[in-house]
């Protein structure tokens, strides 16, 4: 397939694959974000909003949420389920919002690391551009150290039956252990099989800090999961990293 994997993976089948990422988890994630990112009365961009499950929890914290995603399927699902927030379709490296128009930008559920290094730099630069002075970017990221340990010996394929889909997922590291790869094969009655390989960068804390610094952002807080625990880069289940843009003088 000539299209990037992230233009294929987030299709109509995607919500069934991640049914366990439910509204209760979305509430926990936003509650964790609210511990270290001011949300009340702020315009908050949920970058990679998917089907919009974080939008109402953001509103409950007093934010004015805006959702953005590349997937027309997931945005349609957000509209179908009644997301009461503006929804934008766009490429994360070209955010269709004005400079300094957001008090916070959220990248939740590992909505980062999909493209190559230049694309990642462009995305962070765009996040910094749309943040106002004093604004915050919250990056919810996988723990790359835990992923490398887990996949040192690649596990067998995982097979699931989901709402009329048969799914086989195979996870592994790439050759230099800098990316995690997951090949997903979807079989659907009466439809052509669908196969794609997700590829997500495994960036260390220092690399993420450097990407942010190049865009004029500095880390202001970090959590080690949705429970609000302190960050332990070796064992924390998630890395919730907060980067701030310096307020105007």
Give the topology string: H per helix, E per strand. HHEHEHEEHEHEEEEHEE
The amount of helix comes to 10-25%
Q: Tell me the radius of gyration.
A: 18 Å
Provide a count of the helices: 7
Return the average pLDDT rounded to an integer: 93
Structural class: alpha/beta
Order of neighbouring strands in the sheet with most strands: 3-2-1-4-5-11-10
Set down the secondary structure blueprint.
Blueprint: H1 14-17, H2 23-34, E1 43-47, H3 55-60, E2 64-69, H4 72-80, E3 87-89, E4 102-107, H5 117-130, E5 131-142, H6 144-150, E6 158-162, E7 165-173, E8 179-187, E9 194-201, H7 205-214, E10 217-223, E11 238-245
Parallel strand pairs: 1-2, 1-4, 2-3, 4-5
Antiparallel strand pairs: 5-11, 6-7, 7-8, 8-9, 10-11
Can you put this structure into words, describing what you see?
By secondary structure, the chain is α/β, with parallel strands linked by helices. The protein is 25% helix and 31% strand. The protein has seven helices and eleven strands. The protein has helices at residues 14-17, 23-34, 55-60, 72-80, 117-130, 144-150, 205-214, and strands at 43-47, 64-69, 87-89, 102-107, 131-142, 158-162, 165-173, 179-187, 194-201, 217-223, 238-245. It has a seven-stranded mixed beta sheet with strand order 3-2-1-4-5-11-10, sandwiched between helices. Strands 6-7-8-9 form a four-stranded antiparallel beta sheet. Strand 8 (179-187) and strand 9 (194-201) form a beta hairpin. 34% of the residues are buried.
